[in-house]
Amino acid sequence: MERSGCGAVLLCVLCGLPAAGKSTLGRTLRQQLPLRHGWDCALLAYDDLIPEEGSGRGEPPHEEPPSVSAWKRRRREVLLCLERLLRALRSGTAPPGPAAAPPSWGRFVSCCAEQGLLPGRSGGPRSRPLCIILDDNFYYRSMRYEVFQMAREYSLGFCQLFLQCPLELCLHRNRLRGSPVPEGTICRMAQRVEVPEPEKNPWEQHSLILSSSACSPEEQCDAGLMETVLVQIFNLLDTALENPVKQNTENTEQKEADRAICAASAVHQADQTCRRIISQAMKEAKAKNVLPSEMKSLAEELNKIKAEFLEGLRQGRHVESESGQQNPTSDPAARLLSSFQLEASHVVNKYILK
């Protein structure tokens, strides 16, 4: 059946906690979209594209800054691979070889080739709409926003499918897996997960929040319920494909959304850096024989300062230098962290010199 938007591409972010049923839903869509909707469909699962030992199964490792950097780098590589694919789809030529690609390109190419996704290997130019499903936890909104930015860069359709599942049910399903995710990881994600909010964020307007009961991997779900869910999803995909994200540099509302996302990311990164500074300060105090009875007070004082500094970053307040002057041209986050490190040193010295 001919559909509007022939040859167009849609990026669909499939997100939710581990064991919420994302992989099951992704496989169902990959099977049903070509059969019932006349679309091509590719499923790109981050668990397949990122080595498990470096992926954190969707979450950065804790208390190991080098591992966190590796985790972020590998996620960035997936997006770079996706961008190379989009350029190749646009030009209709085969993507560049491994010599000009990140290390993860081999896995990405293999995954795409298995699904007949690569230009020049699929038997001619693509004429039907293509839905590329990205299967990952995407528990931070900023992670999903990166995909939206790519859709905007290439004027593609964009939508989000969020599987909502109670934490206890996710933990139960996870225990039945052959290779379960650490339960602590799932619990931390559940505390941090940011559900799509279309009413607050215009860029999330094409979003659908689904109950995992309709696409559960272990439980037998009602066929009628699953059919209803598929119709809802197909309608969302149609709408998103027919309304691709437009490039508009004069869109003030979108610029404000960009700034909000960047600010949230900056606060998160600053929080991680402050934690490392506090950890190092506590080690220094212990090495200088600060009494155990005072270590707790020291930690509380440092964490109080951290909270005040992060709130200043959220509110966009300038941090003054020792001379009492502000430097409006320097980076607020870097200035804040430098000031926090100095303040932390003063606090530690106060305890050391007691």
UniProtKB/TrEMBL annotation:
Gene3D superfamilies: P-loop containing nucleotide triphosphate hydrolases. Keywords: ATP-binding, Nucleotide-binding, Signal. One of its GO terms (biological process) is selenocysteine incorporation. This is Phosphoseryl-tRNA kinase. It comes from Coturnix japonica. It comes from the Eukaryota. Residues 1-21 form the signal peptide. GO terms for molecular function: ATP binding; L-seryl-tRNA(Sec) kinase activity; tRNA binding. InterPro entries: KTI12/PSTK, P-loop_NTPase, Ser-tRNA(Sec)_kinase.
